Amino acid sequence: MGKMTDEMMGRDLLALAPEAALVVAAVLGLLLGSFLPRRRQWAVRLLAAVGAVTVVAATVPVWNHMARTLFDGSYGVDVATNTVRIVVAGALLLLLALSVPETRRAARESEFIVLLVLSGLGAILLAGANDLLVLIAAYLLASIPLYALTGFGKDALGTEATLKYYLFGALFGTIMLFGAVIVLGVGGATAYSALGQSVAAAPRAALAFGAIAILGGLLFKAGAVPVHFWVPDVAQGARPVVAAVVTTVPKLGAVVAIYRLSALVLEPSGMDWRVLIAVIAAATMTLGNFGAFFQHDVRRLLGYSTISQVGYLLLGVVAAGRSHLALQSVLLYLAAYAITNLGAFAVVCALPQLRSVTHYAGLLRRRPGLALALIVCLFGLIGTPPTAIFVGKLTLFTAAFDANYGWLAVLAAVNSVASVFYYLRWIVPTLRGRSEDEAATNPVLKVPRAAAYVAAIGSVVVGVLAGPIMNALDGPLALP
């Protein structure tokens, strides 16, 4: 690599303006929260919202710029990074709204918001990481704030979920670091570009072991099999808004990180890595669906649902390098999943007293707007037209067929049909059940209700506009 000049350093720093906006929002938010009285902590929330809007404002003008790497190839700015930037920013805005009833004027309101912003920043850095060292740093930034958020309620279930989440995260973070050391030893570099040139001559057994260890950490962040056990426990034990964060934001960066590592490092190695990812995808979508079949707790059901969604996303990773639709379909599905999953959790946040699917009986008569938003999001998670996930699944299945993994696409289609069962177990009582007296008097939290409406409408709008969005998502990964 050539030595960086001051001018090159300045250009690279300017290209990181979206990430810098979140850094500034987090640092200033932490400082403001230390001095502002409790009744004025809303200023920190406003600052975080301005940071998220700035991410979008700084990303859109450079969308069509040529893909490039920064800081000697260690960070990629391309269509994948830009997509995650915008989706994370949108997710943060929705989550800031969802957290209003839970954290407004609370003793640690500013800390909650800062941790939320930092977790979003970690997801973006995961998506853009083009070097193993940057990947590990991003993994830690995307993990540590979420451990703190999971136990934010300081109740028994949240504490138990935090302990499980932290122990799994620490274990797979260590394994990931060990794998990076092995890959460095056999490949002689940490940058993806250099590894892409050296891995073909590296010892296969050592390289495979190191790559699997790195993938283990990323699969943990994504919530995929075999490191998925923490997901339903965190979804059930954490506060509803935290469950929405944990099941959405880290997946955005982790899936793109898996795609980037597979396309730039594993593909040039000559190893048949697709078989491994295909098996993981098949197991993830199948076990996620089976786990959700007989769940009664709505948060736990959504936790298993998010596991199955990762299985579908990995179809695009399997197709990397073999289908022109691979990256486009992954990015579209990530955006569709984020807004749809947050919409479902927004309804849960708006009705926090309703924990079981049976508690939603008669919701259509009591709260028709919320019921319709919930139904749109649940049918969206199934993949029903005209929602965005329907188009995402269609393109992912096509990409899998292009990559000669038709059996995986067929299995994904079967899983999609099977998932109808447990989503209907929630939808049918909502439409036809009789409301219980206690449930009928439960108040609705207004801000999460508005967020649910926005997310449900957004899920349909993204589906209707999927064609132009797919065209905008057409682009290569950044290479030095």
In a few lines, what is going on in this structure?
By secondary structure, this protein is an all-alpha fold.
| Strand arrangement, major sheet | 1-2
| Overall residue-averaged pLDDT value | 91
| Overall radius of gyration | 21 Å
**Which regions contain 5 or more consecutive residues with pLDDT less than 50?**
none
The SSE order reads HHHEEHHHHHHHHHHHHHHHHHHHH
Describe, in plain words, how this protein is organized in 3D.
The chain is mainly α. The chain has a domain at 275-480. Helices cover 75% and strands 1% of the residues. The protein has a two-stranded antiparallel ribbon. A hairpin with a 4-residue loop joins strand 1 (68-70) and strand 2. Helix 4 (79-98) packs antiparallel against helix 13 and helix 11 (230-237) packs antiparallel against helix 15. The mean pLDDT is 91.
